[in-house]
Amino acid sequence: MRIVCPFCGERELGEFTYLGDAKPVRPAAGASQDEVFDYVYLRDNVAGGTSEYWYHGGGCRAWLKITRNTLTHEISSVDPAAGVGAAKAGA
Ligand SMILES: [Zn+2]
To answer: Which of 38, 47, 59, 66 has the largest count of CB atoms under 10 Å?
Structure first.
């Protein structure tokens, strides 16, 4: 699998580290114990399209948000994750 980093171009998978599902959203302060448990421990095992965080440690060190099909490994989008990566993209 090859990933096209928005800052470095197309690179091989070994330069990247998978950081997990990008869909869970941190519960608000005061959320119930069940909501926090679900956020921390429960993840869907998606067969198909999913959104994930990846880290380009072998390149620009940007956090990326990648939309990927887990069955075919086809990548449909690679975007800077919010924060430092997004700021670099605008530079
Ligand atoms: Zn990069």
So the answer is: 66
